[in-house]
Amino acid sequence: MLRKRVRWIDGHPLARTISKEERNRRLQNLPTATPQQLKQIRDEYKNRRKTQRIKRLIGVGVLGFVVLVMSPLLFKSLDYPSLWRAPDSPQEYHMSTERNMGVQDYINSGFTYESRGNSWLAYTNYKKAVELRPDLEAVRFNYVKQALILATSSRLDPTVAEEVYKEYKRDFPDSDRLKELSVMVGE
After folding, report:
1. In this structure, are 94 and 67 located in the same domain?
2. What pLDDT does 61 receive?
3. What average pLDDT does range 125-153 have in this prediction?
4. Which residue has the higher pLDDT, 125 or 46?
5. Is residue 109 located within the same domain as residue 69?
6. Do 176 and 106 sit in the same domain of this protein?
7. Do residues 103 and 176 share a domain?
């Protein structure tokens, strides 16, 4: 933004961005200023305030327009059909996530669902993360844990959970987390 040069009257700068009180104080300290110069100073001040107000209104208008235009696009690009609630079923979830998610996305959403207490969606997300990266021990642990939780509530076939547990035990025999899983299995 271009600014005009600071003007001097009797050695007092009339700065562009000063408070009203400071402007009045400087004007009172200019006894040699002619009425025409004082009128010019007041007019400049009023014009500057007016342009600031207009710029502010234009900025708010542009921002409001951008928000109005972008919000439908934002809602369409979200994973969930609705911003305020998570999907109720795995089918609704898979229908809503058509975009290609990476391993970290699956881990993050699995952790989110696990913290909300939705074991089924946590299980499906961890399962996809394990399919992409089976070498991640922490993700495999969370996957097995959710499978065992679902098997105990008879929402998942117990043989599937047992098979997943055996694979984890085979791949990570020295894991510290194996004790927690063996307690859940009942070994």
Report:
1. no
2. 92
3. 80
4. 46
5. no
6. yes
7. yes
What is the predicted pLDDT for the residue at 92?
46
CA-to-CA distance for 126 and 119, rounded, in angstroms?
10
Span 87-100, pLDDT tens digits: 455 544 444 444 44
What separation in angstroms does the CA of 25 have from each of 14, 20, 47, 85? 11, 9, 19, 59
The closest of 117, 116, 143, 119 to 132, measured between CA atoms, is 143
**Residue 139 and residue 133 in contact, taking contact as beta carbons nearer than 8 Å:** yes
Report pTM: 0.43
CA distance 57 to 60: 5
The SS3 of residue 154 is coil
CB-side exposure of 39: number of CA atoms within 13 Å?
Answer: 3
Q: How many CA atoms lie within 13 A of 27 on its CB side?
A: 17
CB 173 within 8 A of CB 137: no
Question: At residue 37, what are phi and psi to the nearest 5 degrees?
Answer: -65, -40
Cβ contact 156:147 at 8 Å: yes
pLDDT one-digit tens code per residue, 60-81? 999 988 888 777 666 655 544 4
Burial letters 124-144, b for 16+ CB under 10 A, else e = bbbbbbbeeeeebeebbbbbb
